[in-house]
Each structure stands twice: as C-alpha cells, then as structure tokens.
TrEMBL record:
This is Arb2 domain-containing protein. Residues 132-144 have a biased composition (Basic and acidic residues). GO terms for biological process: regulatory ncRNA-mediated heterochromatin formation. Residues 123-144 are annotated as: Disordered. GO terms for molecular function: siRNA binding. One of its GO terms (cellular component) is nucleus. Residues 1-20 form the signal peptide. Residues 14-143 form the Arb2 domain. It comes from Strix occidentalis caurina. InterPro entries: Arb2, Arb2_dom. The keyword Cytoplasm does not apply. Keywords: Signal.
C-alpha cells in the first residue's frame, strides 16, 4: 500500500507539472467547463490556444485515452520510463502552434467529482437489496467493473477516506457549438489520440 501511495502522489505531481507546462511553455489557457456553470455545480476544464475559437484555417484537437491519464498526457508509463516528450502531448502542441493551428487539449477523464453521500442516499443504496437477484447482480457487475478501472487512482488519492461517496457527473456544455467548425464553412481539423505506444493523428 505504501508503494501505491508513493506512485499516486508521484503521478499527481506529474499531472500538476504537465498542466503548468501547458500554460507556461505552450501558452495555452485553462478554460472551465461548462462555460455557463453555476458556482455550486461540478466543473471540469480543458486547455486551448488563444486563437482556438477564431483561427479561420486549421485546428488540432488532442484526446488522451481512458484511465488515469489527464489533459496533456499520452501515458504515464512513457513519462516515467522515457521522458516528457514521449509521454505527453507537448511536442505536438508546440509544433501545431508553430504551423499555425488553433489547439484544444481535451480532458475527458475529468468528467465527474466524488461527493459524500447523504444519510438518505446511503439508506437508499441499502434498500436496493429488494431488487430481483438477476437485476441486482447485473448492476453490481457493472459497478464493480467501473470501480476497478478507477480504483488505483481514486482509492489512494485520499487514503483516509472512510465515508461512502457517489459520483456527480459534469454537465455537457454547449461550448462546442461555439467552435468555428460548426459553421457552414469546411474547416480542417486534426484529431490526435493515443493507441498502444504511439499517438495516432488524422484529419
């Protein structure tokens, strides 16, 4: 457990450092989503260049894979075993900006927050045992698979956490409909995402 906690904090430091590089070296701005969020609702964020919404020629959209990676990262294994150029999206961002692309760095793994369950919600979870066995087993299986995928990151992010929590998903924003490629004009976009050990880009 101690080793896992060490790696968790190491990964959190990497994530924070990559965010800083996106802003300081790549000159991207951090944009809160939903753009029309109220003060109390869950929020996430992405990074984008100053001209991402106004560039009339071309755009690069970077999308990382699922799991524990965050915006600006391809794979933590590559960051640890090789270097930041191999494991992050930073080289692609810098080159894209040099070649006149608008840039958007998505952050799809930050799409919910965990909040403590109220007593009523905990009681409701207990009462679900009255469901038919088959339905309950199917629901439990889905929940276990989902939990397994995020356990490494979530369980050790707060080792002292003992109270039951629930996920609050972040509302989909109408931000995308303000992007220029939703206009009538043909708008060249390049998408990059990570597959195996190599980023894959297409337009």
């Amino acid at each position: 457990a101690t080793r896992l906690i060490f790696f968790l904090f190491f990964f959190l430091i990497i994530t924070k450092y990559v965010y800083e590089l996106l802003q300081k070296e790549c000159h991207l701005k951090k944009v809160t989503l939903p753009v029309d969020a109220t003060e109390s609702e869950p929020k996430s964020f992405i990074f984008m260049s100053e001209d991402a919404l106004t560039n009339p020629d071309k755009m690069l959209v970077l999308i990382h894979g699922n799991g524990v990676v965050r915006a600006g990262q391809w794979a933590r294994r590559l960051i640890i075993n090789e270097d930041l150029d191999s494991g992050t999206q930073i080289p692609y961002i810098k080159r894209a900006i040099e070649e006149g692309y608008g840039v958007i760095v998505l952050n799809p793994n930050e799409n919910y927050i965990e909040v403590e369950k109220t007593k009523a919600q905990v009681q409701l979870s207990s009462d679900s045992s009255d469901e038919p066995a088959e339905k309950r087993e199917r629901k439990d299986k889905i929940q276990k698979e989902t939990k397994k995928r995020r356990d490494f990151y979530e369980k050790y992010r707060n080792p002292q956490k003992e109270k039951e929590t629930m996920q609050m998903y972040i509302r989909v924003s109408f931000f995308w409909f303000s992007l220029p490629f939703f206009n009538d004009q043909i708008y060249p976009i390049m998408y990059c995402f990570h597959m195996s050990s190599h980023p894959l880009c297409f337009s």
